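Continuing the series of single-chain predictions for the mutant panel. This is the parent chain; the variants come on the following pages.
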Amino acid sequence: MSQFTIVPLSGSTDFRGILVTPTALGSAETIHTAQASASLPDLVSIEAFNSDTVARPLKLAWGGTTDPDDVLAFVLLPGETRMIVHQRPIRNSLIIKAASVTMTWVDGRSYTGSADKIVITGGSYVQRQTS
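Parent structure:
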């Protein structure tokens, strides 16, 4: 039977929030580095908060920066807190990074990235498989 433990994102201290200040994926904020195992996954759950009064974009680079293969894109409404990822697996020391990258969404609207407006909240965590 598999065993799991709950741990904070590696970019967090004691489950505290992580401020996303970069506005480009090339300089993105490290949110989490997966365990080194090639067989045991980390199941990552990420909750994000937009502290601004306008909608803001957020991109996650999930183990790489190739778009669209490794990049997840979101738009957070003003004041919105939302679980954007729930128990998505990652392993083998791959890194999850975040940036508020300006983008044009499927509705044809452009959303401007902004430093210091998006927080990966303390409600984010990792279920780490230990056996």
